[in-house]
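[agent] plan:
  1. take the single chain provided in the ticket
  2. run structure prediction with default settings
  3. attach structure tokens to the ticket
  4. add a short note for the reviewer (M.T.)
[agent] executing step 1
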Amino acid sequence: MKRTGLARAAALLLALVMMFTTLTACGDKSQDPNGGKKDTLVVALNGDPPTLDPHASSNSTSVNTLNPVYETLYRYDQNGDLQPLLAESYERIDETTWRFHLRQGVKFHNGEEMKASDVLYSFTRAAGPDGAKVSYIMGYIDPENCKVEDDYTIVIATKDPFPLLGYLPYIGAVVVSEKEFTTDIEHAKTHPVGTGPFKFVSRTAQESVVLERFDDYWGEKPDLTKVTYKIIENADSILLSLQSGAVDVFAHLTTTQIQQLGDGFHVEEGTMNLVQALYLNNAEKPFDDVRVRQALCYAIDRQQILDLAFNGYGTLLGSSMYPAFSKYFDDELTNYYTYNAAKAKELLTEAGYPNGFDMTITVPSNYQSHMDTAQVIVEQLKAVGINAAIQPVTWESWVQDTYSNRQFQSTVVGVDASNMTARAMLERFVSTASRDFINYNNADYDALFAQAQACYDDGEQTALYRAMEKNLAENAANVYIQDMADFVAVRDGLEGPSFYPIYVLDLSTIHYTK
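[agent] step 2 finished; step 3 output follows
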């Protein structure tokens, strides 16, 4: 087993994920052991996609699975620049209205040509009740003022001034087939039909999702004829599947798994581009007291977490922003709190907890890295009298109970962005935001966000976003830990992959070399 550090790390950090990319194998015509062309790939996912409805998708497993199937009007390239995809060009009519000229001859997987009416249907559905999971983006669409001008021209309107183009690569903005959804909506939600280079074949719950090449794809066709996403939630089972040859690629290995992997693989190293933290429910006692939250920030030794659980890998963070957001990232906040058990005890005493308290840390058990982090935190908190217990839950339970219903005290998890805008990271903590799962309620923070949205000067807006980050740090909204290093196991004979500033593995650069 070899570990490869990817070159041009800076470029990788600046690149935004191409949310709906091809799984193109662009290498030689490799041969399998039996003499045939090697053109299939098995990728492990550590969770079963809760849905295959793109307008109801809000987690990484669904996004990973749907990436090759659906496409958007625009996408980001590896330099972070917007490039046309299903649209060929656009015109800005006014601050709330855009006209898009669509690519002609694009076919859905059902053989129907994509038309402007499909785009209108897609955006209208995403902006309505069926798009509740993506409403924090698509809720800004104003369907009543969107209109089809001809088969290949559509006008998209927003309710208020909104940076629409920057959000078009997001999964909520995919184009679905109006015919599929209006003929049999329940079938359409479980059997995705898009315009991407791969089409859906089958899904077996808790087992796999199978895709195959779409030979009528409008763009460059992939060499791969079949991609199987294999669902393996148990960390030990993932390792065994890699070693046995049942899986070719798996992202987000722990350093322990790397050491156990053995020969036959190389490990690509990048950054996960998310904010791992001990997220605190600010509406639940004792975390409704800022002094208690600040005490936890002093009581937790973040560098020790990196050293013990991650062999020293990772980048320390001090707020809800990671370094890939270069102009928004404020490194001065990284050491806003440094380990100080005495200071933690002092704050706990002031808050009325001189002997500490009991607390629960909810952790999605399929993410070993978060489990490892929580275990170190439990030991560290004992030094200040806090008795923490880990509550492992399934990913489905975490999404439903912890995230959506906000039924938790604290949780260790990673939060990423849907696109390369500071808004994507910071809006979730506005008190009225549906995604404010920590129940952060700070009038100054809300006011800063409102000012940022009303500001059109880039420098002023950047300063406001940085002020929001400082607000989160000062008020210890969460205990910020790190942007985790990302390790991807790739079977020897394959090359790639690429890393992007979002919690999605881009497989488009993986190809067979022998």
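[agent] step 4 note for reviewer: Confidence is low (pLDDT under 50) at residues 3-36.
[agent] ticket updated
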